[in-house]
# Entry
Amino acid sequence: MHNFAADQLEEAVNTLIAGKPFHPNQWDPQVEPLLPIAAELQYLPRAEFRARLRADLLYRTRHATFDRALSLRPAAQPAAVSKPRASSESVVPPLFSTGNVSFPMRGSHLAISFALHVAALALVAALGWWMVENRAAVRSTLAGLIPTDIYLLPPARGEAQGGGSGGDQDKMKASHGTAPRFSSEQLTPPRVIVRSEAPRLSAEPTVISPADVVLPQSPQAGDPMSRIFAPPSNGTGSGGGIGSGQGGGVGSGEGPGVGDGRGGGIGAGVFRVGGGVTAPRAIYDPDPEYSEEARRAKFQGSVVLGAIIGPDGRPRDLRVARSLGMGLDQKALEAVTKWRFSPAMKDGQPVAVQVNIEVSFRLY
Amino acid sequence: MKAIEPDAHERQLIEAAQRDPSRFGELYESNFDRVYAFVARRVPSREEAEDLTAEVFHQALAGLTKFEWQGTPFAAWLVGIASHLIAHRWQRAAREVEVSADELESFGAPEETERQAMFAQLVDRLPDDQRHVIRRRFLDQRSIRDIAQELGRSEGAVKQLQFRAIANLRNQARSRHA
# Structure
């Protein structure tokens, strides 16, 4: 076969489809006998129409009794033919099939579908309303402090913990001595060497710790743990106080307490709940978001975070104590960072405490 | 394709469909091409042909229980319904367009209908690529360029497929006729 004949046949087909007349004699002898065939092909039925009509008829045969009840006139009386109902019906494609199958769309189907959708929307709205009305109950199941949970640090038995440090960036380590009086507040940090001999407003140096803790006192201020007795020094730390750490306390830790811990108190750590220290209470605790990955996997569980709740009620030093994964750890951290607390109280004063917080993720 | 002749098998099909309408599908499959071919040549558009063909089968289904076997082929009964529907439509259209008496009288020509129905069946038996080209070109009226892009072939190759398909149909039609 030559390309010329194929090109000429295509030209003839174009003319046919355009509905233009053509003269049979103008074509190549190879093409001319094919033209009547091409003309016939214009009247081929579409496969999808054939399948659609078959599906429609099948549907009608299943409802033949109903159709007969409508008294459709017999086809032998065309003058009185009324248009069958299906002619005015739309046809919808199948939902779970890729074949040339379709189904007639009836008003009753639409009405049922509409009613089901309305019912579903009403259910969603009712659930939303219920959750808003019972927000507190829902939230309590989502996240919260768990003072009775097994992951909570055990309350101290009889004594509080804490720590602190200070210093004024001296080249010498802090010298030995005793810590100043303990108090629930600190106006002036302790000093071995007083830099200002004539302060305008003097105040007794103190460190923050429970007032019921009593340590031996001596005239020589200093770090009780230091083995350097001379020369006197405030230590290599910063922020006032005595020691090598930061803050206005005594020792190698941070904060206004005594020891190598943080915050107030004595020892190695911040205050803990118990021993006269009350638990902080969440006063603003927005719900954590779900990670998309966990939502798709319908993953549920709890993340336990360790945190220090400061006297200002803000959480800090957040860390994951028990991981859940699927991005929920990060979501829990993001949520708890925004939380605000009524701070822990010691002797009527707000103090920093370490707590564990359980954040639960549940899908409803 | 069989000619329009009554046979015992068709009678059995009709009686089965009268007892159980779900059997109407077999009558539909064996007569669809004939009815469509008859209607398509007598209306100006494909949409109208499909509309009328659907009406023919809907009415046939509705009136099937009243059909009495008198030796007349079922296809003839269907073509009769189609003739009435086309006439009815033309009578309505004649209010706006004058229709000649010759056209109203042209409901015969069964050979033409049979020939057209035969081509519909022959196309289904073409090789896949040839059948695809014929359907896209003549039914969907897509251009050679579009079809070439769909198939990932050159326009020249698609033209040759078209040529082979039509030549193939001609040869098969001649062999059947012989």
